[in-house]
Design goal:
Length: 63
């Protein structure tokens, strides 16, 4: 069965959630800056798996 984009993103979100839990334990508190942390983690994870976002306004590293 071929994986859908939803499957890929769901997996990436689950991995980010697990890793972020470890990150927050290391911080010793909730991380109020979680959105950019998640985005960076998901970008790395998806890039390592060979996925890439594309579009006319996207640049390497994002904004």
């Amino acid at each position: 069965m071929e994986r859908t984009m939803t499957d890929v993103l769901t997996d990436a979100l689950r991995r980010a959630a697990d890793a972020h839990g470890v990150h927050e334990k290391e911080l010793g508190r909730p991380d109020p800056d979680w959105p950019p942390w998640y985005a960076a983690h998901m970008t790395r994870t998806l890039t390592e798996q060979g996925y890439q976002l594309s579009g006319s306004d996207l640049q390497q590293g994002g904004r």
